[in-house]
Amino acid sequence: MGYCKPYGIKFISWTIVGGFAGTIGLDPHLLYTLSAVQILALLNRLDVLDIEMISEYVAGLQNEDGSFSGDMWGEIDTRFSYCAICCLSILHCLDKINVGKAVNYILSCKNLDGGFGATPGGESHAGQIFCCVGTLSITGSLHHVDRDLLGWWLCERQCPDGGLNGRPEKLADVCYSWWVLSSLIMIDRVHWIDKSKLTEYILNCQDSENGGISDRPDNAVDVFHTYFGVAGLSLMEYPGLKPIDPAYALPVDVVNRIFFSKF
Amino acid sequence: MSSDEDEWVPFSRRPEWSDVKPVPQDDGPHPVVPIAYRADFRETMDYFRAVYLSGERSHRALNLTAEAISMNPGNYTVWYFRRLVLEAVDADLNDEMEYINCVASKNSKNYQIWHHKRWLAEKLGPEVAQKELEFTKRIFAIDAKNYHAWSHRQWVLDALGGWQNELDYCTELLEDDIFNNSAWNQRYFVITRSPLLGGLQSMRESEVSYAVEAILSNPENESPWRYLRGLYKGDPNLLICNNQISGVCLQVLKTKHNIIFPLSLLLELLCHGFQPSTEFVSAVEALRTSVPESSSTSSLANTICSVLEIVDPIRSNYWSWRRSHLPSQVC
Ligand SMILES: [Zn+2]
């Protein structure tokens, strides 16, 4: 989940330690483990998973301070907290980790502007904010967020061209339509931005001849920004799109299927 | 200038690899998304798979990982295996640091590379702190907002030390670009965490002056306005008592330009009990020429929100929300 880089996976590859790798023959990593679980949830095939094994793998990556490492090599980042908690939540296995400590670690990454960074003291960045707010949302801990302060920082991300950026003084980019909007929705402040200008910005990033959406107008389209553009439009209830859940990044009907029916 | 030595020799034609049988990638019989790899990449990965599966931890395996990395630095399994080999062959980690610095300079936004650097720095300990700080400085000379390099720098300071010149370095970066939010963030990191500075409270006065000066030179700059509030995080009573802070709001408001941030901060002060003098009231009144008459009897806080709704139209919903949620004492 690099913010402008591949987030999905090309192949699903399951290794014997219980996690998923980016492709066949690689070691498992939390990023790919979450992607694999999300894809199987989309396909309604969570039944193929050995949930016991995967949840043990994910839970084993929690550190003493509540943070999560991405894999056995120990890189720590609030992105991995999100991956772990989202994944365990989909699998109904949050009881396997210390949720209180996980939440406290996220809170230790909160900054003076109300946003969150990758590690304690790291600069606020819309992508990291999505991960932290998403983690807090899934664990029912949003009361720790200063909604008005964070909401203002997030709506300050809207540039005069209507698009959203990820940090002050950076250019707008379609992918932040997802990271910023989803965070605003989770803290119930999405009405603070100008939705029609943002919609217009995303539509301007379409390749009207060959399809697809790019990061900014007139750039080459790619599958990642196409996903984020469509997801952003869905969050703004653009006609004809299915609603998407801001915390799980899955269609709402899939999330409902996971939590309101037994699999 | 080209020489034959630079030409890539297939592993199958290298005598030192003749004993290894390459292992091709198994995409299954019907790959969903077949990927067309270049021949040299495919062959390198086939040999990598062979040594990875056999667990060979040797110098030639180390060289092989370097070749694989040069073709795809994002393959994290290759990096992991490289670390296993480095440990097994008891390699000189200073040489490895030189190597990784070279790779990192060319791929400064790659997670694996920075993680490898951290792994090395952790092993080499405090003696490399200065070198690591220097390295990130070189990255910032090209991209002063590189998130990976900032994470690394903060980790080095926390884990290995080297705080002595950090505040000066922030000042230097902000002299280059006063809008650099990463440098403002680092400044806050230093004044709140450096073991040499005595913490936020002892730095507050001088930092307020620094931020005020930055604001006066560029009032449209979001970062120092937020920094000012951050200096009084959790202490709103002290925030409203500092005349320098209310003063900078007034000073910028009187210019009638770039009034969004000073109005927003003044609103914050009012909400926390700041008692405005008539000077503040008339400075705000002077801004409401275009605001409908009907609001002429409203409170100062109310007027501020109305003005902001007009001068910051993209966020007009935010400001009208603020107006309808003002604390009762300022309504
Ligand atoms: Zn992007």
UniProtKB/TrEMBL annotation, chain A:
Function field: Catalyzes the transfer of a geranylgeranyl moiety from geranylgeranyl diphosphate to both cysteines of proteins with the C-terminal sequence -XXCC, -XCXC and -CCXX.
Known cofactor(s): Zn(2+)
Signal peptide extent: none
GO cellular component terms given for this protein: Rab-protein geranylgeranyltransferase complex
Quaternary assembly: Heterodimer of an alpha and a beta subunit.
The protein's name in its UniProt record: Geranylgeranyl transferase type-2 subunit beta
EC number assigned by the record: 2.5.1.60
Pfam entry (one): Prenyltrans
Keywords annotated in UniProt: Metal-binding, Prenyltransferase, Repeat, Transferase, Zinc
Prenyltransferase alpha-alpha toroid domain location: 17-249
Protein family per UniProt: Belongs to the protein prenyltransferase subunit beta family.
GO MF annotation, one: Rab geranylgeranyltransferase activity
Automatic annotation (TrEMBL), chain B:
GO molecular function, one term: CAAX-protein geranylgeranyltransferase activity
A GO term from the CC aspect: protein farnesyltransferase complex
Cofactor: Mg(2+)
Entry-linked InterPro entries: Prenyl_trans_a (IPR002088)
Domain of life: Eukaryota
Keywords, alphabetical: Magnesium, Prenyltransferase, Repeat, Transferase
Catalytic reaction(s) noted: geranylgeranyl diphosphate + L-cysteinyl-[protein] = S-geranylgeranyl-L-cysteinyl-[protein] + diphosphate; L-cysteinyl-[protein] + (2E,6E)-farnesyl diphosphate = S-(2E,6E)-farnesyl-L-cysteinyl-[protein] + diphosphate
Family: Belongs to the protein prenyltransferase subunit alpha family.
Descriptive protein name: Protein farnesyltransferase/geranylgeranyltransferase type-1 subunit alpha
Source organism per UniProt: Dendrobium nobile (Orchid)
